[in-house]
Amino acid sequence: MTETLPPCPECGSEFTYAMDALLTCPECGHEWSAAEEGEAEQVRDAVGNLLSDGDTVTVIKDLKVKGSSSVVKVGTKVRGIRLVAGDHDIDCKVPGIGQMGLKSQFVKKVSD
Predict the structure, then answer these.
(1) Which residue intervals define the domain Protein YjdM C-terminal in the entry (predicted)?
(2) Which of 10, 23, 65, 88 could make an SS bond with 30 (beta carbons 3.0 to 4.6 A apart)?
(3) Topology of domain 1-38, per CATH?
(4) Do 56-109 and 1-38 have the same topology in CATH?
(5) CA 14 to chain CA centroid, nearest Å
(6) What is the fold, at CATH topology level, of the domain defined by 56-109?
């Protein structure tokens, strides 16, 4: 049984092939992630609320900052989050600490 790959989103070619984690079109040279084809993975907070870019969240547990003696205290409000792929699925700027990555399991969405 062969796996059917989607056509190229740029030129519509049916001759796409998989190379590592990317799909490639031999006709126009376009490369794209196979994850872009399907439904994007949903990121949920600690209580199951769906998160999206630009949301405001609060930290639900004291978090030690790796490589520093700083701690992100419980209740810290973080505005304008950005969702990214990976283990730490939230990029944000924590007040008093700076730019860092957080895991969605340690935050709760703030309802507006």
Answers:
(1) 43-110
(2) 10
(3) N-terminal domain of TfIIb (2.20.25)
(4) no
(5) 29
(6) SH3 type barrels. (2.30.30)
pTM of the model: 0.62
Task: Give 70-93 as a DSSP string.
Answer: -EE-TT-EE-S-EE-SSSS-EEEE
Has residue 1 got a pLDDT over 60? no
Tell the residue number behind the tokens 């895991």, with chain if given: 103
What are the pLDDT digits (tens) for 44-68?
999 999 999 999 999 999 999 988 8
Q: Which of 11, 51, 3, 52 is nearest to 32 (CA)?
A: 11
Strand, coil or helix: 105: helix
Four-CA torsion 20, 12, 38, 19, nearest 10 degrees: 0
Tell me phi and psi for residue 35, to 5 degrees.
-65, -30
pLDDT on residue 36 = 54
Give me the mean pLDDT over the 88-104 stretch: 93
Amino acid sitting at position 104: S
Looking at residue 43, the DSSP 8-state letter turns out to be -
